[in-house]
Specification:
Blueprint: E1 8-13, H1 17-28, E2 33-36, E3 48-51, E4 54-57, E5 63-64, H2 69-77, E6 92-96, E7 99-101, H3 107-112, H4 118-129, H5 143-147, H6 152-167, H7 176-186, E8 192-193, H8 201-207, E9 212-213, E10 218-224, E11 227-232, E12 235-244, H9 248-254, H10 260-268, E13 271-281, E14 295-297, E15 306-311, H11 312-315, E16 325-331, H12 333-338, H13 344-355, E17 366-379, H14 383-393, E18 400-402, H15 413-433
Helix pairs in contact: 1-8, 1-15, 2-15, 10-14
Organism: Streptomonospora salina
EC number: 1.3.3.4
GO molecular function: oxygen-dependent protoporphyrinogen oxidase activity
């Protein structure tokens, strides 16, 4: 029996950057695309809260000028001007010995020290230039195994804080290769940039030309004859093809019938949780130890609760109203785990209390506190996932596919945008191989 025509042509589940970039490219290729997003706004882990003159980036913070070719191509394609992606001044510092050491991760830091000894600086230079065989793209060693050959200083004062602060990684779980490849590709932190208007600017620009249904949760996806069936709150919808642009654990839950060559990789793609507290302040806080830039990494040897302190009002002037301040506190992985069951008030008190060491009097300046929790913060890129991805990438094109930084084991917006290119090529190959009657709109349903 010939299956009934699908209700819609292409469904994309998730309105983060990977889902929106996938939807836009499919739309430009002539597909009729519908995007379903459970949250009330687009952006995913690049969402920004816009409130009373504050622009609070809840997840991703910046993008480099180098090493993000797919992202920059999309920025240009969307007609965004250089002023829309301004540079972040004094982007990264490293806390050591009671001071914020500036110029971390940039050539000037290798000259001034950036809190590292000459030996550690030389080691860091070799890593950034690709010296040594370990840490290559095919190397499945954990960061802990790789770092055993590094000096304790470089390991504890730079590599581990960087992995924890920006990827949420534990060194004993995550592979070294993705982190080192990312560092080598993106180069100096002097070239870090952000989006004017908030990190969700790219997502909002993408969504403007698409049919996006926010507040619409998808509870299940199954491959069926002629395409895919999606289960929503109001019933089911069939699609000729579907892309799950959600974290791997969510994809496993949504698509339990995934074939073995997909399931093994999906199951191996674990995620690190992330916990962040953002503080709207009456004024810009006083800073201890010369903390004057944007982000300061804090090694576990200095603080086992806070991993990163960001002065978001220094990232770009539009993040806080004139004269006000905006600070975010990122919890270290052990503290994130310890605060999993705590309520927002307890969580904020724990982080703000610890932050007084770096920003004296901080607690007395707080107007409003926002706690951001991501149970699926960033893909861990474990050795098991590295081993399983070959079969995943070699699978045939199917009606149900995936997008997201985890598919490339590159936990950043570049991974998300580049994954969209892969997903689009696979979906177009599938529909070319499986001609279908024209889709029909389901009666009585607005998509």
């Amino acid at each position: 029996m010939t299956p009934a025509p699908p209700d819609i042509d292409t469904a994309v589940v998730g309105a983060g950057v990977s889902g929106l970039a996938t939807a836009r490219a499919l739309d430009r290729a002539g597909r009729d695309v519908r995007v379903f997003e459970a949250a009330d706004a687009v952006g995913g882990r690049m969402r920004t809260l816009h409130s009373d003159g504050w622009r609070i980036d809840t997840g991703a913070e910046m993008l480099p000028s180098a090493g993000y070719p797919a992202t920059w191509a999309l920025i240009r394609e969307l007609g965004m001007a250089p002023a829309d992606v301004p540079r972040v001044p004094r982007a990264l510092a490293l806390w050591r010995g009671g001071r914020a050491r500036p110029h971390a991760g940039r050539p000037l830091g290798l000259v001034t020290g950036a809190g590292l000894s000459p030996r550690a600086r030389a080691e860091l230079m070799r890593l950034q230039l690709g010296g040594g065989e370990a840490g290559g793209p095919a190397d499945a060693a954990t960061l802990e195994e790789f770092a055993a050959a590094c000096s304790p200083e470089l390991r504890e004062r730079f590599l581990y804080p960087l992995a924890a602060g920006f990827f949420g990684w534990r060194p004993d779980r995550s592979a070294a290769a993705p982190l080192l490849t990312h560092l080598r590709a993106t180069g100096s932190t002097a070239r870090w940039r952000t989006y004017r208007g908030g990190m969700d600017a790219l997502a909002r620009r993408l969504a403007a030309g698409l049919h996006v249904s926010t507040g619409t949760a998808v509870h299940g996806v199954a491959a069926v004859p002629g395409g895919a069936r999606l289960t929503l709150d109001g019933g089911t919808v069939t699609a000729r093809s579907a892309v799950l642009a959600v974290p791997a654990p969510a994809a496993v839950h949504l698509h339990p019938g995934a074939p073995d060559d997909e399931h093994a990789f999906l199951a191996a793609c674990s995620f690190a949780p992330m916990l962040r507290v953002s503080l709207e302040l009456e004024r810009r806080p006083d800073a201890a130890g010369g903390m004057r830039g944007f982000a300061t990494l804090i090694p576990a040897a200095e603080d086992d609760v806070l991993n990163v302190v960001t002065l978001d009002h220094n990232k770009h002037p539009d993040r806080a109203p004139a004269g006000r301040g905006l600070v975010s506190l990122v919890a270290a992985p052990p503290a994130t785990a310890a605060l999993t069951g705590a309520d927002d008030t307890e969580t904020a008190a724990a982080l703000v209390g610890r932050a007084e060491r770096y920003l004296p009097g901080l607690g007395g300046l707080v107007r409003r506190t926002r706690v951001h929790r991501f149970s699926h913060g960033l893909p861990e890129a474990t050795p098991a996932a590295l081993r399983a991805r070959r079969a995943f990438h070699g699978r045939p094109a199917r009606a149900v596919d995936y997008a997201g930084d985890w598919t490339l084991l590159r936990p950043c917006s570049e991974g998300a945008v580049a994954s969209a290119e892969v997903a689009v090529a696979r979906i177009l190959a599938h529909v070319a191989d499986h001609p279908s009657p024209a889709h029909r709109a389901p009666p009585g349903r607005t998509l």
